[in-house]
Specification:
By secondary structure, the protein is of the alpha+beta class. The protein has helices spanning 22-25, 34-45, 55-62, 77-83, 126-129, 155-161, 170-176, 179-190, 197-206, 215-227, 231-240, 244-247, 249-257, 259-278, 284-297, 302-307, 312-326, 334-347, 357-360, 366-369, and strands at 2-7, 13-20, 50-53, 70-73, 87-90, 96-101, 104-110, 140-143, 148-151, 163-164, 194-195. The strands form two sheets. Strands 1-2-9-8-3-4-7-6-5 form a nine-stranded mixed beta sheet. The chain has a two-stranded parallel sheet with strand order 10-11. The termini are far apart.
Length: 371
């Protein structure tokens, strides 16, 4: 084990971080994405430092294959952009760079200062950048060339002990970014890490802060949950922490008032997880099917509707409108929600073969669709 030193205000050396060597962290080199290594190598050749950071390092340490490899560097966005023709600068408040390799997008960000808190937009040093990160298990840096993990906050030990600890003080972490509550629940489930009573209590008492978050960010977080293969336990934890009502208010209301619906809904979430584990690349609409099935089933007496020969077009139009409102503030792609509705109707016995494409495109609820 190595030590990374810095200096205090008096110029004396002080311990900053622990550095774990290859023999200590045991991260297999073949699990590192080659394009991520290429990006880091080019930044090194240009005189900059660069590291894989965050969730990818956490996943590598626990033996999982990361879905994304985020990179952090001391190069500014403009300099990063000049190094990679296959890149674009994004962001309004804090700019970062997306480097594109085919279907893969690598997020390359510049070290940020913590002078303005964890959501500040000023560039800074690695020592500052680490103190902006949400939880210790996500505040790790990996150098693929030295094959070293740099740990300022005892994140490696917390991973081994299966505990979830915030880097940012509890009185600031959720005020500065309420979405961290959703991520805390997600990380706790997916890494089998326990939250302290103080952290869990803080989430429950701060959940109302999520009401200020934009639908686009909530959609992003919910889609990550749906696509992750752990939707059932995450949603159960989110319900207990009174967080799910901000992700899916309509579903939460029914769950809190109807025990049978809750049981059916959680069974559907478990079925969704099985689908993701068996076919991770399945269409979004096939996953949304499980989100809306139990609600759609409860909308009407489907056997009676079919017996009375209610037109398929009418049933589709009514169902699509209700499901669109049911999933708010989530805003999935329209064609994927349409697929989910069609799949559910088919399973409920509605003859969807008579539906034409144009039926699905009728502007049944323009106001809701624009929310």
């Amino acid at each position: 084990m190595l030590i990374r030193y810095g200096t205090n205000k008096f110029g004396k050396p002080v311990k900053k971080a622990v550095i774990y060597t290859k023999e200590e962290h045991n991260i297999p080199r073949d699990k590192i994405d080659r394009d991520a290594v290429f990006i880091i190598n080019r930044l090194h050749d240009a005189g900059f430092s660069a590291f894989i950071v965050g969730g990818a390092v956490r996943d590598l340490l626990v033996g999982n294959t990361p879905k994304d490899f985020d990179i952090v560097t001391d190069a500014t966005p403009g300099k990063i952009k000049r190094l990679f023709r296959n890149s674009r600068i994004i962001g309004r408040r804090f700019r970062l760079v997306h480097v594109v390799f085919g279907q893969k997008i690598f997020e390359v960000s510049t070290f940020r200062s913590n002078e303005e808190g964890s959501v500040g937009n000023e560039f800074g040093s690695m020592d500052e950048d680490v103190m902006r990160r949400d939880f210790t298990i996500n505040a790790l840096y990996y150098d693929p060339f030295q094959e070293q993990v740099i740990d300022y906050v005892n994140g490696v030990k917390d991973i081994k002990k299966h505990v979830l600890k915030p880097v940012i003080p509890l009185d600031r972490i959720f005020v500065e970014d309420p979405v961290r509550m959703i991520r805390a629940i997600k990380y706790s489930v997916t890494t089998d890490s326990k939250m302290s009573h103080a952290l869990r209590s803080k989430i429950r008492h701060s959940s109302n802060l999520l009401s200020t978050i934009s639908p686009s960010r909530l959609t992003e977080e919910l889609l990550k949950i749906i696509n992750g293969g752990h939707a059932a336990p995450i949603i159960r934890e989110a319900l207990d922490a009174e967080v799910f009502m901000y992700l899916q208010p309509a579903a939460s209301h029914i769950i809190y008032t109807n025990k049978h619906f809750e049981e059916d809904y959680m069974k559907s979430m478990m079925a969704l997880d099985e689908l993701v584990k068996s076919d991770k690349d399945s269409r979004q609409g096939k996953k949304l099917y499980y989100l809306i099935y139990d609600f759609t089933k409860s909308l009407t007496d489907w056997e009676k509707e079919i017996k009375n020969k209610t037109s398929s077009s009418e049933l589709y139009a009514r169902t699509w409108r209700e499901c669109r409102n049911f999933v708010l503030p989530m805003n999935p792609q329209r064609k994927e929600l349409e697929l989910a509705v069609r799949m559910v109707l088919k399973d409920l016995g509605v003859n969807i073969s008579s539906l034409k494409k144009k039926t699905a495109k009728k502007p049944e609820n323009k106001t809701a669709d624009k929310k």
